[in-house]
Amino acid sequence: xxxxxxxxxxxxxxxxxxxxxxxxxxxxxxxxxxxxxxxxxxxxxxxxxxxxxxxxxxxxxxxxxxxxxxxxxxxxxxxxxxxxxxxxxxxxxxxxxxxxxxxxxxxxxxxxxxxxxxxxxxxxxxxxxxxxxxxxxxxxxxxxxxxxxxxxxxxxxxxxxxxxxxxxxxxxxxxxxxxxxxxxxxxxxxxxxxxxxxxxxxxxxxxxxxxxxxxxxxxxxxxxxxxxxxxxxxxxxxxxxxxxxxxxxxxxxxxxxxxxxxxxxxxxxxxxxxxxxxxxxxxxxxxxxxxxxxxxxxxxxxxxxxxxxxxxxxxxxxxxxxxxxxxxxxxxxxxxxxxxx
Length: 341
Prior knowledge:
The protein is α+β, with helices and mostly antiparallel strands. It has three domains: 5-101, Rossmann fold; 130-194, Dna Ligase, domain 1 (2-Layer Sandwich); 198-338, 2-Layer Sandwich (D-amino Acid Aminotransferase, Chain A, domain 1), CATH 3.30.470. Helix content is 36%, strand content 22%. The chain has helices at residues 23-28, 32-43, 58-67, 88-95, 105-112, 114-123, 172-186, 234-238, 240-246, 258-274, 309-316, 321-338, and strands at 5-11, 47-53, 71-74, 131-134, 150-154, 168-169, 190-194, 198-207, 211-213, 217-221, 248-252, 279-288, 293-300. Strands 8, 9, 10, 11, 12 and 13 form a six-stranded antiparallel β-sheet that branches. Strand 12 and strand 13 form a beta hairpin. The model has no long low-confidence stretch (mean pLDDT 92).
């Protein structure tokens, strides 16, 4: 394996310490992913260092000019305080000819907007829930075709931001209140989509042109009350105490027939290509009680921390963490070469 010079690009507030005080402290830290990637790359023999970015590209340009990395490992999720501007950073790297890992800017833009992504996916025969977009400063009026129950969420935020049990609405008044909450508190447009009651799956995809799917992962609850929907709220995603109290676990999906598994994985590959993804992504899906599969979201550059769904499913596929990071590096280098073919 060739030793690489790797600049690990991250938000300036998430530059981790050289050494975590303890495993427990690292697990609870906001810079957990950044720490895991940096320390693992160094353990693999690569020369890796952090580059923090916030509101200005000048520190990034200066760091790249001074140290001339072979590749940038892109962990930046927002720029200038917004996810909307995040694609402009890899676009800048494209312009200066700097190889980087993860999704290209076109794919980031297409998957960032849930409404736009859904329209594209529908045109490519990927089943998505029926939905409506509610823009800010516009009248909140439900289309007649859209029936309850509905799940209301931000049109552009990811990672379950703003999603709670109250996000599931069952009449027009609840819909109005929840859409107004998204507009006011998150400052984004809102999407209301058909609520699919059933099982929730996650599928990791790796690749640029030739794609590899990771094992199907499933979200399960051991202690969820009968009247509480099994949705991935912000507390389910990020609150360790709540996860423990509800018995929240993820692991390889069981009891899927081979035809269901094949259909699901083909659906994920089709979505990945339709949204012009590259590098790696995680697809979120729901299976209805009738067995129909719906794609909910495409998450470009998903959470890469040790012990999270993407890394765990890669390990189950024979890609332990170091091999997963190396695969992502290789895809980044290959993507730059393919751009000039």
